[in-house]
Amino acid sequence: MYDDAKAQALYAWHELLTNPEDQMNAQEQYDELLRLADNFREKRIIDPEERKTLIGVATLSYARAVEGTICEG
After folding, report:
1. Residue 8 has what pLDDT?
2. What is the 8-class DSSP label of residue 59?
3. Rounded Cα–Cα distance for residues 32 and 54 (Å)
4. pTM of the predicted structure, to 2 decimals
5. Residue 46 neighbours by CB distance under 10 Å
């Protein structure tokens, strides 16, 4: 059961990373990804190292999005 919950949680997180909601800007997406990572950790779905990895991936994605916005502007 634990593995199923973890797989579903990570799938949802990845979906938000790769397909943000239409109205969501980069900052909102980043905030939601961090919130989900914290929530998964609080529920003990992931461990602290996995949380750190998710936050790193979210941060890199956010930095790329912001960099793209600055370069286009």
Report:
1. 96
2. H
3. 12
4. 0.87
5. 20
How many angstroms separate the CA atoms of 70 and 12, rounded? 29
| Alpha helix ranges (H) inside 19-47 | 26-42
Domain locations in the chain as residue ranges: 2-16+25-72
The answer on pLDDT for 72 being more than 60 is no
Name, in order, each residue with C-beta under 8 angstroms of 35's C-beta and a sequence gap of 6 or more: none
The helix/strand/coil state of 45 is coil
Query: What's at 1, amino acid-wise?
Result: M
**DSSP label of 71:** H
**Burial of residue 32, with CB atoms counted within 10 A of its CB: 0-12 exposed, 13-18 middle, 19 or more buried:** middle
